[in-house]
Every structure is written in C-alpha cells, then in structure tokens.
C-alpha cells in the first residue's frame, strides 16, 4: 500500500498540469535544485556589490529582491494550503521524523523575536521616512506576513510527504528553502558589517589603526524620539532572526527530500519519551557553565574596550574559561563513546532524510570553526609577538578541533543507534529476551495482545486512528494503559539502566555547554577579532573574511548541535 | 553470498587489529572523514598565510607538509598492496562502475605531464640550489615517486571493495583523497597567483593601476642556462597537473564510499560499447568549434596586451564567439532532453556511489561559474561605463547559466537512464518484447541458453571465470559468439535507432564544446579579468577572490563534464 503513486481524488476542474509519473524524479530534483541555487547566487552577487559600497547597487535592491521572493513563497503556500484543504486529509502521508513538537515550539519563539525585529524596523522607517527608500518600510511588513504564514505552514504541513503535482510542489518547496537561506545570508551580512564597524571604531579609539568606517545613517533627522533605540536594539535581535531562517530552511529541505518518497512505515513511528530520572550531575554542571558564561560575557565586553592591559587580561580569561569548558565537553563526549563501545549494538541504517541531513549539517558546519582554529594554530606558531595568551590560544584552538570531532561522533552515533532502544520500549519486543526474562513471563504473548486489540476496537483505538497523521502509528492499535503488564511498565523506573542515565547526563551537560558557546559569539564576545595574532599573520582583510565566513557557520553549528543533542537526550 | 562480512583467510600472524563487525560503519566514516577534512584545512590555513606573504610562513612549509602527507600515503599504499598480494585474489570484490579503462588511460597521460613538470621543478632547483630551500628539491622527487605509485595503484586497486581491516583502510583511502585535494588546492593557488601577477603587470604597463607585483624570484643567479625556460614552461603544465589531482581524488573518494559496501551484483556488470555508426554532424561541428577556439585563443592572447581599442575588440570577439558556442550547446542539450521526453523510460535507481558522486560534482562545480555569471549580470546592469561588449557580456553570462542548467540535466538523465538500454543489449532480455518480436522468435529460449552453458562449460566460459574480477560478470557464463542469433547481433547495425544516433551526435558535439571551453581559461583567455566591468562594481580584491574561487571550479566542471559525456556517449 505504500507504493501507491496515484494522486488522491481531486476536483475534476483540475486537469493535472504535470503528470508526476511522466517526469522522472531525479530530473525534477536537479531541475528544482538548480533553480534554487541560482536564486541564492543572485542574492549573493547583490550582497557582494553592496559590500563594496558600489553606489549603483544599494541595500534597497537586495531587499526588493528578497521581498519578491517572499511574496512568491506566500502565494505558493496559499496555493498549497488551499489544494490540500480540498483533498481528503487522511490520505496525506506524513514523515514523523521530519520535525518534533519542541523544534516547532522553538521556531515559533524565534519567529516571535523576528516579528519584534520587524516592528523595530518599521518604527525606524517611520522615523526616517522622509529620506529613505520606501523599500525599507515595505520589506519588514512583507517579512512579518511571511514569518506568520511560514510558522503556520511549519506547524501543519512540514511533515507532509507530497505525492502528486510533484514537479510544481518541488519548485515551491525549494523556492522556500532558498528564500530562507537568502534571508539568512542577508542577516549574517548585516550582522557581520555591524560588528566589523564596531570593531574598527574600537581599534581607532585605541589608536591602533586608521580604518575607514562606513556610516549607514540616513541623511535626515529622525522625526520620532525612538530611532536610535530601534537601531541599537535591532542588533540584539539579529542572532535570533538568523537562527530562525537557517532552521526553517533545514526543515523545508527535509520536506523537499521527502517529496515523492515512499515511506518505510515500519520505521516511521513516533517514539515515546523516556523518563528523566537520575538527572543530577549533568544539569548542575551545565547550569554552572551557563552561569559562568554570562559572567565571562559581561566581563569580556566591558574590559575589552579599555586599556591594552585590560584587553589582554580579558582575552586570557576567555581562553582559560574556554579550555576548561572544552576539556569538560571532550571528556563528556568521549565517555559517551566509550559507553557505546562497551555495549555494542548494530546501527540503524533505514532511510531517513531528516537524520541524514542532521549528520551532514553537523559535519559541514564544523568546517568553519575548524578552519578558524587551524588558522589560529598557524598564527600562534609563526608569530613573533609574545602576548600573554599566545599558548592558551593554541591549546584552545586544538581543543576546539578535538571537541567538535568527538561531539560529532557522539551525536551521530546516538542518532543512528536510537532505533533498537526505542523498539524495545515501544513495541515491547525485546531484542535479547533473556535480559527481560522476568517480565516476559509476566507479559501475555504478543500476538495475543494484538489480536485482542483488533477484536475489541474501543474508543482509544478509534481516537488513535483519526490522529494517525499526527503520530504516524497506523499499523497497530495501541494497547490500553490498563492492559500493559506492570512488569514491563515499571521496570524502567525501578531499575533504571545506569548507562542510560549517564548518557542522559552527558547529553544535558553538552546541551548547556553548547548553548554557552553559542551565547558568547552571538552577543559579541569574539576574541578572534581582538587578539591580534591571526591578524598579524593573515592580514586584516583576509582574516576578517575568514571570520565572516566561519563565525556564522559556528553559530549555526552550536544551535544545530543543541537541537540534535536534545533529540539524543529524549531518545537515549 | 554477497552479504559475507568476513575477511578472507589470511596468515595467522595477523590477529585482526580492528574487528570490522565491532566498530559501526557510520562511525568509521565520520571518524575518517573528519580526519581528512582537517588535513585539508591545515593546508588551507598555511596557504592563506602564504598568500598574505607573511615572512614567517613560506612556501617551504606548505611543501614540507604536503611531502609528509605524500610519504604517508606511499607507506599506506605499499602496506595495502603487500597485504592484498598475500590474500586470495579471487575473493576481492570489485565495483565495475568505479572507473573505466579510458579514464585510467587519461589519468596516466595527465600523470606523465605531471612527471615532466616534476622534472622541470628539479631542474629549476638545481639551477638555484645555492639560495633556495632544499625542500624545493625534495618535493618534486617525492611528488614524482608519489605519482608513479599512485597511477600503479589506480590501475590495479581502485575498483577494490574493501571488506576487512575497514577502519584502518578507510583512514588510508581518505588520507589519499585529501592529500590529492591539497595538492590540487596548492596547484590552483600557484596558478592563480601567477596569472594575477601577469594581469597586474599588464595593467601597470597599460597605466591603469599602480599595483604592487610580488616577485618570487630567488636572490641568486641561476647556474644553468635553462632556469627561465623551466619556470616559464611550468605554467603551461599546471592545468594538467591540477586536473590530474582532482580526478584522482574523485576516484579515490568513490573507493572510500565503496568500503564495506555489499555490491548488488545484478547491476554490477560491465556494459558493452555500442557501435559508432551515423556519427557525422556532431564530430564535424565539434571539430569546427575546437578549431575556432584555438584561433580565438591565439587572437585573444596577442590582442589583449595591446592598446585599449585592440583589447576591447578582443573581448567583444570572445563574447560573440562564446554566445554562438553556448547557443549551439543549449540547443544540443535541449534536443537531447526532448528526445528523452518522447520515449519515456523509468530511471535506474540502484545504488551506485560513482554515479552519485558524478551527479553531485557536476552540480556543485557549476556553482562557481553560476556565481561568476550572476556577478557579471549585476555588474552590467549597474555600471555607468559603456564599453562595446556590455550587452554581449550580459547575454553571454545568462547563456552560461542556461547552458550548465540544461547540460547538467541532460548528463544526469543520461547517466540514470542507461541501465535499461544496456540490459537490453547485454542480456538480450528485452523489456518490451514486442519491439524485438522478430529477433525473439529467432533466439532460443533464455533458460535454454543458460542451461546449455552450464551443461557444456567450455574454454570461453572458463576464461571468463578467471577474468571475472576484471569484468564483474560472475553470474552467467556468456554465450559463445557462434551461438548468438544473427538477428540480435546485426539488428543494431542494420536498422540503427535514429534517436540513439542523434543522442550520440549530441554527446560528441558537447564533448568537443566542453573541451573548447576548458582550453580557453586554462591557457589564459579570461575576459573576466580584462573587461573591467565587474571590477568596477565589486572592487579589485573582491572580484579577484571570486575569480580565484570560480575559475578553478569551472575548469574542473568542464573536464568532469567531458568525462561524464564520454560515458554518456559510450552507453547511449
């Protein structure tokens, strides 16, 4: 039944514009993938021209382009929702791995912060409306509409596995992916430019260098009293807006990969959340890390603008703090891997585009930070100046490489191992029955359970059937709670697996540490700009280019690893 | 029998150091992939420092690093060959899709040119040995040894599907992949620097700009009379050396993907080459394109260094020539796609890492050139200067985007469609028997053939069995030539399929055109440097950075598409 390529019945007025069976899937992928890539490249070319401050290409042009793309995406989403509404809802397959409730919740939060940002932008435009382009006012309005519509789309349609109108829907989804990627790039560019200007201003104030600072202030006075408040608050909201767009594009990309896919329904089941017992050391250490991070952030930002002495001590402090954090993270990740080596299990190799993408994103977003670290290593080894933080910088950089190496291994192995654990809990089909020998004797035979459920299809069962699109459990009607043998139900609570507890603690600790390491660069603690070592070896322009590429990737890495680790935590 | 994960019998002195079944495959992939990526990043960091002309990091450091990597790879290859020699040869599975004879032949040719380059480098070192680092002499010696050993490895082992010692061999193969990638990057950097210096010298001579040119000449006089000959000839050999390394790393990457893979032997058969009848229009047009390209190259290079008038006319000529070429290529690719749409066939979706990589490389190496084109479009639309080639540049850039778009679609669809054609020819099992109704009646029943072959296992059959590792045909003993019914054997010659002939002509034409478009930038015809439009919009440093990234990718794209199109040509 999963191989059905036919479209569900639809109104006869729609004579299928594209016959999915006619056009090969691989071609449709390439066709739409190339379209999306070119959209992004046009945007990137515009951004480069803006970065050069060419008078003929201004920010308005980029914003108009992005607005057009957003409007197109809005139209497509409306079309999609309208067509879906008309269809028979129960026939839409859903990929339960595509996203989770808490990811959608987190995205909604980020979207709310983006909306606040749009409000600030509108306020800023109102203040300066006499001398700035109308595009600066239209863009945030469209962006806000786009954000609201997109969050609604994410909540209700992101798990859809599209089976008909494939080619057209492919274009729509990939358009949405690359629109969000473009908005991400644009956010990253604005943020980097703002940071770089601040950095240059600071250097000039210290008398280090004579750099030209680009002023982007409009040529007229603000008519309201809140303009400067709006423009300065904007930069605190940028990190959230940036993360919002890149996460949305990852989710939409999974949706795109799912188009035309035949789900393997046996592995397409949602898993139960395990109990959170024995969580002490991980959260405590994690909270400690988070608290110290905020302290470090405040001290760093206030000290780095002061005298050379203060600046150097702030940078040294950062590196020592970083080394401690990274050593803890390496140890945590390594012990997780050791635990996995001790109880060997085969990995789950079933197809799962969402997990595949997670793996690739972790790996590829590490590259930015690795590159930055190796540049630091080269700089430290080749430099002739002797700042106090020279060797701590070296150790810190090497630990960054090691920590990402270990953490990636840990996360990826966790994501690929989950299957068996989950099966054991969910289906009560122990893979190694001898371990569960006490409970097995208590539990009735499995086929008996299933037969009973089919013989007496009760209310619970019917309710589950209507909710099938949400949970993806279509194949067996769940046992009623009263039917669950007590032995199985309470075993996990009475004798919790010590290894699993350790793994849960490790996951919580790593989540907190990754949040810490996201907060620092996101809110302006970037010693790579301030320590001067790399700048000496690579020159100002090469090094800032490297940082402008590596820091956004690193920020994305931290956020993405938090999301993945949360998944690990829930499923261990 | 294909699922056997056990290692073949080996001397008992080797107590398996890594038990493949113990360590999960996904982890081994990530572990080795991360290792290789970091190797490349270290090299890239060194290159950036060299590009800044930092006195503490010199080319010697990069060359020493690359030499160490090559030595390590040599040791690993020796170990691999020794271990394999001891093993039972017939037990090694081979992936017939991994490479073809003509790819290996082409690589051998490129390797020979690389050896000549090494000889030149040694000669250059001998001339200047009193004042340059000994590394400059050691590096070409190691590189030559490495090239010879690697070509030998490619000929005899690249198709191996490694099933035991997995983790260690994974590291060895990925080390080889990234060593070659590093050598590629280093070649690209030297070539780009050389070109940029030439360009700056030309601009200075024309009085355009006052740019500092980096002199890399040693501080002493050459002791032989041939130094300048060596150093100037080097740059004509660079393009070949660069292509050699990137192709080798692609092949080795396929070998890495194949490690631990269970081959689907039913699709792992080599295919026969079809006859080359009716090839007239494609080769003629292609040769015309190739001849005109060489003319354009000579005219361009001689004219562009002259007065502004000559320069502008040379650039205009290039664009007009390019537009004609690209229109022809677009039409060819589009008609190929139309032919595919007319006779609809399902695509082959069996797993094939080699083909998968081909697809991804085509797609991702297009990005460089697309980005360059979109930058040109932005520049043309925003510029205020009015050179005569302004609008031809715009049309040329848009056609570049369109041509790659269409060509990628054509190549990828061809690669994914081949299966059925080949099956029809190879196995004589027509998918649509009614077309072959005449021949089917002539041919004996298939099971009869197979039975007869098993009943009378003759010389041909035994010979094929021993060659099984070369051809991969393990499953059926081929019919003797005399047994082939004449109807099947001559049908293809008597009534050649007109569509197939058109496709073959298209493939030949596209091959020639892609070679033409490789020759031009590889030998110095790069109007993107000379036309000045983009430089005005993006600034000198941003635009040269874009070109340094995009032109090598574009060169690789052209070479790679030639290889893929040749594959298409053989299998249509």
From TrEMBL, chains A, B:
Main subcellular location: membrane
Transmembrane helix among keywords: yes
Chain ranges passing through the membrane: 35-51, 63-82, 102-126, 132-156, 168-189, 235-256, 277-302, 314-340, 361-382, 394-416, 502-520, 540-557
Compartments (UniProt record): Cell membrane
UniProt region (Disordered), positions on chain: 1-21
UniProt topology in membrane: Multi-pass membrane protein
Keyword annotations: Cell membrane, Hydrogen ion transport, Ion channel, Ion transport, Membrane, Transmembrane, Transmembrane helix, Transport
Cell membrane keyword on record: yes
Any one GO biological process: inner ear morphogenesis
One CC-aspect GO term: plasma membrane
GO terms for MF: proton channel activity
Superkingdom to which the source organism belongs: Eukaryota
Biased composition, class Polar residues, residue ranges: 1-15
Family per record: Belongs to the otopetrin family.
Protein name: Otopetrin 1
């Amino acid at each position: 039944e999963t191989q059905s390529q036919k479209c569900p019945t639809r109104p006869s007025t729609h004579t299928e514009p594209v016959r999915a069976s006619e056009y090969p899937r691989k071609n449709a992928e390439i066709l739409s993938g190339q379209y999306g890539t070119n959209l992004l490249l046009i945007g990137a070319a515009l951004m480069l021209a803006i970065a050069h401050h060419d008078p003929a290409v201004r920010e308005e042009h980029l914003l108009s382009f992005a607005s057009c793309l957003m409007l197109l995406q809005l139209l497509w989403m409306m079309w999609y929702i309208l067509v879906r509404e008309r269809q028979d809802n129960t026939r839409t397959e859903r990929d339960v791995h595509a996203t989770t409730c808490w990811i959608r919740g987190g995205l909604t939060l980020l979207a709310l912060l983006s909306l606040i940002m749009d409000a600030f932008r509108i306020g800023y435009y109102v203040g300066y409306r006499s001398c700035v382009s109308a595009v600066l006012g239209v863009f945030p309005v469209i962006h806000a509409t786009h954000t609201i519509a997109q969050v609604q789309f994410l909540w209700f349609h992101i798990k859809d596995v599209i089976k008909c109108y494939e080619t057209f829907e492919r274009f729509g989804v990939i358009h949405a992916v690359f629109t969000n990627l473009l908005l991400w790039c644009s956010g990253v560019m604005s943020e980097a430019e703002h940071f770089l200007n601040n950095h240059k201003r600071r250097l000039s104030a210290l008398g280090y260098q004579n750099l030209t600072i680009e002023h982007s202030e409009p040529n007229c006075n603000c008519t309201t009293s809140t303009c400067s408040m709006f423009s300065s608050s904007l930069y605190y909201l940028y990190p959230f807006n940036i993360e919002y767009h890149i996460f949305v594009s990852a989710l939409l990309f999974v949706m795109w990969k799912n188009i035309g896919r035949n789900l393997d329904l046996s592995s397409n089941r949602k898993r139960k959340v395990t109990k959170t017992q024995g969580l002490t050391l991980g959260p405590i250490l994690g909270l400690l890390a988070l608290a110290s991070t905020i302290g470090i952030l405040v001290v760093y930002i206030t000290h780095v603008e002061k005298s050379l002495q203060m600046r150097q001590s702030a940078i040294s402090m950062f590196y020592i703090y970083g080394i401690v954090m990274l050593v803890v993270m390496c140890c945590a990740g390594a012990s997780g891997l050791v635990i996995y080596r001790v109880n060997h299990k085969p990995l789950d190799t079933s197809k799962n585009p969402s997990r595949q993408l997670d793996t690739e994103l972790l790996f590829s977003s590490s590259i930015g930070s690795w590159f930055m670290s190796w540049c630091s290593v080269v700089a430290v080894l080749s430099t002739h100046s002797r700042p106090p933080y020279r060797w701590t910088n070296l150790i810190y950089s090497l630990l960054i490489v090691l920590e990402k190496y270990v953490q990636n291994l840990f996360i990826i192995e966790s994501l690929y191992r989950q299957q068996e654990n989950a099966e054991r809990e969910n289906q009560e089909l122990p893979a190694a029955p001898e371990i569960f020998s006490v409970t097995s004797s208590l539990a009735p035979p499995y086929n008996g359970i299933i037969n009973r459920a089919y013989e007496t299809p009760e209310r619970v069962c019917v309710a589950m059937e209507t909710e099938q699109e949400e949970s993806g459990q279509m194949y067996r009607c769940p046992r009623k709670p009263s039917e669950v043998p007590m032995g199985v139900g309470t075993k996990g609570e009475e004798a919790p697996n010590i290894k699993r507890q350790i793994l849960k603690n490790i996951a919580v600790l790593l989540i907190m540490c990754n949040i810490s390491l996201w907060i620092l660069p996101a809110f302006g603690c970037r010693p790579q700009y301030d320590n001067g070592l790399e700048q000496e070896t690579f020159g100002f322009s090469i090094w800032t280019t490297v940082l402008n590429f590596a820091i956004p990737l690193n920020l994305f890495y931290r956020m993405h690893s938090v999301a993945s680790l949360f998944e690990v935590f829930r499923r261990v």
